[in-house]
Design a protein that fits this description.
- The protein is of the alpha+beta class and 241 residues long.
- The protein is 21% helix and 34% strand.
Length: 241
């Protein structure tokens, strides 16, 4: 397999502010990356990336992040998020034994999961990226990334890297009409010299609407019509590994 999951990219009206918040909350360093700001992941934690673009619209996002317990408990994580510009949504009350619904500095939703949650135990600080979308899309991504399915209940499905860590999950429900499908998207990196082969493999798995954004960068859509981007690794990418 020569295709790697680099990041979840968020378009933002304030990408530097966004990156600063999440860098602090997750304890990651930020670096410039192809016109965006990357908080790189590793074999167990997916990266997140911020680039200039439209902000949060009137509807809730189709994708959000779940933070899970590692070194801090839930209340400590909430306090750290609030200290750096996040806020509790709704009436600000977190029921005992429940997740905390929050918004970051640009009003994107995320959740801080309760301390005794077994589903995300051992997944690390960024426990899950949870998405609206059908089971077929979860199965597509399992095959595309060669990540096993680790949760399979009804129409809900979640996958995880072989090393463990952050889960990618889909609700099993179609994306609500009118929600943006281009503002939050997965960014993948194809190994040097395998870019065209990987694009063809993704099309065979069910990706559609391939288009070249510029040499070495292609945009496609998953079975739910959600955009994702594949980039050919550069010499700089190779040296970083």
């Amino acid at each position: 397999m020569s295709l790697e999951f680099q990041s979840v990219t968020f378009l933002s009206e304030a990408p530097a502010r966004d990156a600063s918040f999440w860098s602090t909350v997750l304890g990651r360093s930020a670096r410039d990356d192809a016109g965006g700001i990357l908080l790189a992941g590793d074999a167990r934690q997916v990266g997140i990336r911020f680039a200039a673009g439209p902000g949060h619209g009137g509807k809730r996002n189709r994708l959000h992040l779940h933070l899970s317990r590692v070194d801090r408990n839930q209340s400590e994580t909430i306090a750290a998020c609030v200290e750096h510009g996040g806020r509790l949504r709704g009436n600000g009350h977190v029921p005992e034994g429940s997740y905390a619904a929050m918004a970051d500095v640009v009003d994107d939703e995320f959740c801080v999961i309760e301390d005794d949650d077994g589903y995300l135990a051992g997944c690390g600080p960024l426990g899950e990226v949870t998405c609206e979308g059908t089971r077929a899309t979860g199965e597509f991504w399992s095959k595309a990334l060669d990540w096993p399915v680790v949760w399979d209940r009804g129409e809900e499905v979640a996958i995880q890297a072989p090393a463990g860590g952050t889960k990618l999950a889909w609700s099993g429900e179609p994306i609500e009409t009118g929600k943006p499908t281009d503002r939050q998207y997965f960014t993948l990196v194809a190994s040097w010299g395998r870019f065209d082969d990987e694009l063809e493999r993704l099309r065979e798995l069910g990706a559609t609407d391939p288009s070249s954004e510029r040499p070495g960068v292609a945009s496609l859509r998953d079975p739910d019509g959600v955009r994702f981007v594949v980039r050919a690794s550069s010499e700089d990418d190779i040296r970083r590994r």
